[in-house]
Amino acid sequence: MVSATQLCYLLFLFVVACLVLEGTMASNDGGSNTFTLRLFLVRHGETVSNREGLVAGQAESALTEQGERQAVALGKSGRLLLGQYWRIYASDLQRTQDTTRLILQGYKSAPTDTESSCPDVRLDVRLRELSKGARQGYPKSFNDQQAMEARRREAQNRGETFLPETVPAVESERDAYNRFLNWLLEVAGEAVREQGQSTKNNIVLSTLVVSHSAFLRAILTHMFTKQELIQKGATYDANNPTRLLIPNTSVTTLDILIHSTSSFWKQQPSQMEHQQSVIRDGEEKFNGSIWQSKLQDLTWTGHYELV
Which keywords belong to this entry (predicted)? Predict the structure, then answer.
């Protein structure tokens, strides 16, 4: 018959054996089951639409001289660690492409110890601004009905027939957040496969993402509570207390801690595409299982002093 003392000793040996086994497994997989995808989320520089108080949405609007200076100053500031990044992404709209180019221009003209090993910028339509429907290109004071009427009058002045069905559809913040999730799943999956053979621990893949204010707002307000954002210094529109302000060329640093050993990442691409629709309908069930998100810094604008 086993005494209580012997039982405790056997239990102790079992725990030690488990710890040894866990340590052996950890050493076999590089000592880490996670790595960090660090997203530097940047809004484009000031545009003509911003300055004139117009709704840009997915319509094109060129950078102003101020917007160009903002982007160059951000590159010079060193905030983005451009010499250490993994990838650079930008929305396919011209204002984000120009902002990205000027950020890199500012960085390369600044004193650096090593030349950046920057890969080509990857343009992605999923990082676009929200579509604002009929209001795109019109004053922010216009509602949908006023914008539709303005479009109708302009068509008549051109001697054309106004076709309401040609007006862009309005996109919700939830729609934009789903686009982001779709993009993030793809990028995270590529990172998991790329890091699969790595023997390094605590890997951080710094990634620059240049996008738009409403798109970034949709990400932040869906991933974090208002209280969490306020704790990071969030500011809100005086006329709309629910509208988080995202200044031009501000930098928000978001860490995505990826659990690379999750069975989710071992699926075939076709299966993962199916899971994306599941996550869009209820991504909360995956929270903590395939990744965890942590907001490091919100809408930093320290480079403004260099403009």
Answer: Hydrolase, Signal
Spatial neighbors of 170 by CB under 8 A, at least 6 apart, are 131, 132, 133, 144
Residues annotated catalytic, as ranges: 44, 129
In the annotated binding site for substrate, the residues are 43-50, 95, 140
The phi and psi torsions of 158 (rounded to 5 degrees) equal -90, 0
Nearest to 261 by CA among 19, 89, 98, 34: 34
Give the span between the Cα atoms of 182 and 71, in whole angstroms. 27
d(CA 307, CA 305): 6
Q: What is the pLDDT along the chain (307 residues), one digit of tens a residue?
A: 545 444 444 443 343 333 333 333 333 333 357 899 999 999 999 999 999 999 999 999 999 999 999 999 999 998 987 777 899 999 999 999 999 999 999 988 765 544 444 458 999 999 999 999 999 999 999 999 999 999 999 999 999 999 999 999 999 999 999 999 999 999 999 999 888 766 567 789 999 999 999 999 999 999 999 999 999 999 999 989 989 999 999 999 999 999 888 888 877 655 555 555 545 444 444 556 788 999 999 999 999 999 9
Residue 137's φ and ψ, nearest 5 degrees, are 95, 0
Binding residues: 43-50, 95, 140
